[in-house]
Structures are given as structure tokens and as C-alpha cells.
Amino acid sequence: MLGRHHEPIVAVATAAGRGAVGIVRASGRDLGVLVQALCGRPLLPRHATYLPFLGADGQPLDQGLALHFPAPHSATGEEVLELQAHGGPVLLQLLLARCLEAGRPIGLRLAEPGEFTQRAFLNDKLDLAQAEAVADLIDASTEAAARSAGRALAGAFSGEVNALRDELVALRLLVEATLDFPEEEIDFLQQADARGRLERVAATLDAVLARTRQGALLREGMQVVLAGQPNVGKSSLLNALAGAELAIVTPIAGTTRDRVRETIQIDGVPVHVTDTAGLRADGEAADEVERIGIGRSWSAIEAADAVVFLRDLARAGEPAHDAADDRIAERLAAHPAAAGRLLCVWNKADAVPPGTPLPPLPAALQALEPPVLRLSAATGEGLEALRRALLRQVGWDSLPEGLTIARSRHVEALHRTRGHLQQARALAARDDAALDLLAEELRLAQDALGAITGAFSADDLLGEIFGRFCIGK
Ligand code: GDP
Ligand code: ZN
């Protein structure tokens, strides 16, 4: 495996398209051949040299800066050559082709997606969470996401995870050492305050887990579903939140045939809003197309962080309309995924006299005490309050400072760690503390944590993570 990762690779490192500067980067061994062919002379290590890049015929292809980093003092930990040329796509492809041709004797090949970062990981220049942060930084769609990915790349998150792991290792060693002196077991643990340390590590883990969940949310976004009977203004609300004409708005009930999904931002948090097809209260749609839409609505609700039950204030009090809302309310209340995440929102506030009191909640929802809001998708009144309420639904009043970006993978690993820690605490609480089992749970907790930074990662996980990078990164 190591041999393969010294194979020289090359790629255009800058984004496709025109730019003032474009970079072709090579990493691996024996790059001196490339230096000689393209630069015509050896380069002073880690110094930028301005010179012509030579074609196969010895004529200049372009002028630019060349940098040569001998191993291991480079971004990948291998020998690296960087050619900074002018940024045109044709020119960069020419330069790349020239490198591949000149590098044939050393087996130079085109880099696979993420391969530079993967080598940095394999050579201990980055841990796995930091490598992921590289991808997140490149992909960041909001300023908040970019800032928090930067923090993760700088190692803030890895630092917290490693501190936790060090404490787990220390505890496990303590327990294992005690195993060798069975007659003194309990005293020894008590003296070292093993239980107290276990409690403290569990508390720290919970805090890291809470922040990591928010970091994952920042990267992956929250899911919001707009539910309600036809014509209450779901499409209009989606449009108002997105600030664009996305969904088809029509005065005929039941005309939103499919769910329409749009991603908006609230305080830098991506929010994926799904407009469901009109949820007919009795589940009986007028036709097949609409019926399929309804089934999908429920699957969207299943995955939602917040479900907005939208109602028409202008029609409140009409018996048939209210009855239809009541039946939707019953279905939402009965749905475990929806019940805890409901927001009751009255739309068309502009269509009733100001100060009109809000009708009571449907009986089915009263025990749930969902937040109740009033707004107008048409005028925009009340939209800001809805945005705040959506963030509060995932535990955010505003974006916390100092957040590091994270992935669901990290949240799951922390969860597994937490499970083993809980087992360990239960064992430690017993009088006959089964120390061998305790040590085993601590080891499992440590392994679960190690998956975050890549200390214990399977090759397929690595492949999956690095395969998502673009080529040249
Ligand atoms: P959907 O079926 O729930 O998606 O509802 P639509 O968004 O298609 O809206 C149905 C009708 O209600 C359209 O004629 C909209 O213009 C109207 N409408 C939506 N929101 C408001 C609002 O806030 N005030 C008023 N007065 N009309 C609205
Ligand atoms: Zn609609």
C-alpha cells in the first residue's frame, strides 16, 4: 500500500475555468526528472523561481513560478512540484500533458479525486477529520460554514476528540493495571478516582456531541416540511422563504402535484424546505398522481427536523375547512416523527382585519403545545419570526460562535463512544466491578472515537471520503 502511495501523481490543482493563475501540482518520488524537463534546471527547495515552462521541443509553453518541495516537508509529505502558470484551461491542459509525457520514465500518472489530500492523511500531515474539513472548506456554501470548516481544518475538533481519547486510554490503562492486583482492585480504583474520571469524561463527551451535532447541521442543513391542505399557501410560503418563483402557485386546490424542494439559508445554516403535495385530510386523493405525492409527503415528514402545519386564516371557521384541518392535525399528532417537531402556522394574515384573534389549536394538537405563528406569505409579514422559530426547533437561537463543521459520520461515532461509556459507567458502579469487562468497554469507546480522526478506519471508508473530492485536491 505504501509503495502505491509514492507513485508520482499530477493534476491541475485550481478550479476549472479561467483564472489569473492556474496551478499544476505533482507529488510522489523522483520528481527531479520533471523539474529538469519543464524548468531546464534544478530548483532551490521551497523557493519560488520565475522561469519559462518548456515544451517537448524546448520552446516555452508559458512563464510562471515553479516551486519544489523535497519530502517530507510538503503538504502531502512527499516530494512536490508546483507550477503556477497563467490560468487558461487550454494552457493548463497543455502543461498537464507535458508533465505526463516528461514523467513517463518515473511512472507519473493523473491523480485520482482527493488523492493529494489522501496522501497528506497517510503521511500524517492531516487526520481524517481535518481531511474532511478540506473538502468542506472547498464546498462551503455559506460564510459560517467556511469559517467553521477552517476551524476544523486547523484541528480544533480533532484536538477535542484526541483529548477525550487520551483520557479514555489513561483510564483503560489504569483499569488494566488494577486487573493484575485482584485483591486490591476496589481500593486502587477508588484511590485513582476512576469513577469520578469516568463521569467527567462522559460529561465532556456529551458537550462535544452537542456541538458536533450542530456542526453537522451546519454542513448538512436542516429539513423542513410544509404540510397543510391544498390552497393554504404552501407554495407561496416556499417562494417567499426562497425569494424566488419556484413552486407553481395556483388558486385551484390540489395543483401542487409534486414536492418541491428548495434550500434557503437562515443565519448561514442551510435549510432544505420541502413543499408537500396537498395533503388531503382523508388520504383519498382525487387522482393517482396526487396520491403518490401524498405518500411522498409522509416520507419527507419522517426525515424532517421541523414540520410546518400551514393553515388558512382567511378560511378559519368554515366547518368543512376546519374539519379537514382537524383530520390533518390528527394524522400529524399520531405520527411520532411529526408530533415533536410541529410548528402551527396561520397564513394569509393580510386577508383578515388586524388584531383578529387566532382560532384555537385542533384538539389533537393541544397536548403537544406546538409554537403558533401568524404570517402572510403574500406580504412577508411574520416571515422573520418563522425563520427564528425554525432555528429554535433545532436548538439554535442564533448561530453559536466557535463551531467546527462536522459530519453525521462524526455524530454517529460519538454516539457509539457514548454507548460504550455508559456501559463502562454501569460496570464501574457495581460493587463487584467486573474490571475485565470495564477495560473492554473503554477499549471499544476508544476505538469508536478513533474512527473520527482515522486512527481506526477501514479502507473502504477512506475510499468513500477521498473519492468525493474533486481531482487535484
Ligand atoms: P398551496 O396549494 O398550499 O401550495 O397554496 P398556494 O401557494 O398555491 O396558494 C393558494 C392561493 O392562496 C393562491 O391564490 C395564493 O396567491 C394565495 N395565497 C397564498 N398566500 C397568501 C397570503 O399570505 N395572503 C393571501 N391573501 N393570499 C395568499
Ligand atoms: Zn402548492
Automatic annotation (TrEMBL):
Belongs to the TRAFAC class TrmE-Era-EngA-EngB-Septin-like GTPase superfamily. TrmE GTPase family. Transmembrane segments: none annotated. Residues 221-395 form the TrmE-type G domain. K(+) binds at residues 231, 250, 252, 255. Binds 1 potassium ion per subunit. Exhibits a very high intrinsic GTPase hydrolysis rate. Involved in the addition of a carboxymethylaminomethyl (cmnm) group at the wobble position (U34) of certain tRNAs, forming tRNA-cmnm(5)s(2)U34. One of its GO terms (molecular function) is metal ion binding. This is tRNA modification GTPase MnmE. Homodimer. Heterotetramer of two MnmE and two MnmG subunits.
